[in-house]
Write a structure and sequence with these properties.
The chain is an alpha+beta fold. It has helices spanning 2-19, 209-228; strands at 23-25, 42-44, 54-56, 66-69, 74-78, 86-94, 102-110, 119-127, 132-135, 138-141, 147-155, 160-165, 168-174, 185-189, 196-205. The structure holds calcium ion.
Amino acid sequence: MKIRLFLGLPLAMAMTLCAHAAITDNFESYALGSDLHGQGSWKGWDNSPTAGALVSDAYAYSGTQTVNITGASDLVRTFSGVSGGQWSISIMQYIPTISSGVSYFILMNQYNDDPGAKSWSTQMECDMDLEVVRSAGSTLPMVKGDWTELRCDIDLANNTVNEYYNNQLLRSGAWQSGGLNELQAMDLYAGNVGPVYYDNLSVISVPEPATFTALALGGLGLLRRRRAK
Ligand SMILES: [Ca+2]
């Protein structure tokens, strides 16, 4: 009876895990030099092919490939089912020391191609001239010539977002003041400057599935130890 109970618990956790599948992209599965517009859930803003972005091997956080956000790039990654509860979206960013101008990392609580409705939640302005990152009046020093993480912890249940740059809190505020109580899209907007490289996108529910996996594996470990006795 006790053994069944232990087996049931990890299975239940594994099923919970499946219900909150993580979204990840390390940019390794695309052809080098190809435009992400129209590949997977990527597209140019308002579905415009001219707003896409190219897969690059100039720098990489994982493997050999990233996406290069530069010039006319205004690259959208749409999400579905990122609603309710708490979520964490993370992406690695590399800004070469020679890059200048202002590039943007944007999260949308509502996104539709023109003429559909759009609503903005997070906008990190990466000012490569002043070497700062801004969001709604808050500022942090920029990392250039190295990889750094942009992360937003979103609590849809309580309508809050904590925005982190380089593991430091940049801004804490409301997630939505209009639109929808969801994360519908990420937009990497070059603002006609660049280059800025991005790698290792992940969107996970919180607590993250890895925690559930660890708990489940821990449960199985207990089960094995009990059986071994
Ligand atoms: Ca990669």
